[in-house]
Amino acid sequence: MFAEMKSRYLILFTILGVLATLIIFMLIGADAVTTEIAVQIAFYIVVPYFFFHYYWGKNPDWSLSEVATTKGIKPWLPAIVGMVFVSIAFSLAIFWLQLTILSPAFPWLAELLLEPVDMQGGSGYEYFMLLTLVILAPIVEEFVFRGVFLTRFAAKTSMWGGILISSLLFGVLHLDFVGAFLFGIIASLLYLRTGNLLLPILFHMLNNALAALSMYVPVDEVFAIDWFVVTTMADIETKAFANIIIMIISALLTAWIIYRLAKGLKQETKAHGIVEPLAESDAP
């Protein structure tokens, strides 16, 4: 299914869609909040809808259950929860490392990154952003990065080539590049191991839901992790040791997770028929 979808068209249409939306809303004098919502709608709804609708329209025999199904996901749920917490811990430690590197030379940038997210568009804007973060982004990004990009690049290069390229592109889309890159590798392996896109979608949703929760509820009141989470410039130094420990432990656990998911991957991938060779003339 995904092997027939041209990734270059998806990239081109996404860029054109976002640029066209920005230009139109700038020309009509829309405010920043309205423009941001319009761009999110173009990126997460309009372009993906027309792209996937085009290919599904050409192939009426395709079924969504071929790539996403609830069948067989129950045994994976505890592992997904554990992987999410490891991923979040690693990302928080990497955030501390970024601040440690930036603060001596660019203290203003470090302070900017530590600024809490300010929802200035009212309750409607907040609800839309939450819907995008927790529901739309995980579904669309998994179909795009683990579905189209992973499958196409793996077919044109190699299985690990597809995993690394699609995860690099996923990392570029996020501020937390290192954390997002490793997150992308784990999500890719989940899909390749099971042939079920619903698993990385759930992995993504839970991760984003916890991130969204932290915007509204102080992390120390819910997760008791204030001892290493950096929220002020002073925390960069005072919580350095705790973050080094968290980084080492979470990095080792991440490596172990990737190793376990990658073990026997070729056989699983062949069994699910995810990565299939493309014709030489069939570019990504």
UniProtKB/TrEMBL annotation:
Domain CAAX prenyl protease 2/Lysostaphin resistance protein A-like: 127-210
Keyword Membrane in annotation: yes
A single MF term (Gene Ontology): endopeptidase activity
Entry superkingdom: Bacteria
Pfam families in alphabetical order: Rce1-like
UniProt keyword list: Membrane, Transmembrane, Transmembrane helix
Spans through the membrane: 9-31, 37-56, 76-99, 127-149, 161-191, 197-219, 240-259
Annotated InterPro entries: Rce1/LyrA-like_dom
GO BP: CAAX-box protein maturation
UniProt keyword Metal-binding present: no
Protein name: CAAX prenyl protease 2/Lysostaphin resistance protein A-like domain-containing protein
Organism: Planococcus plakortidis
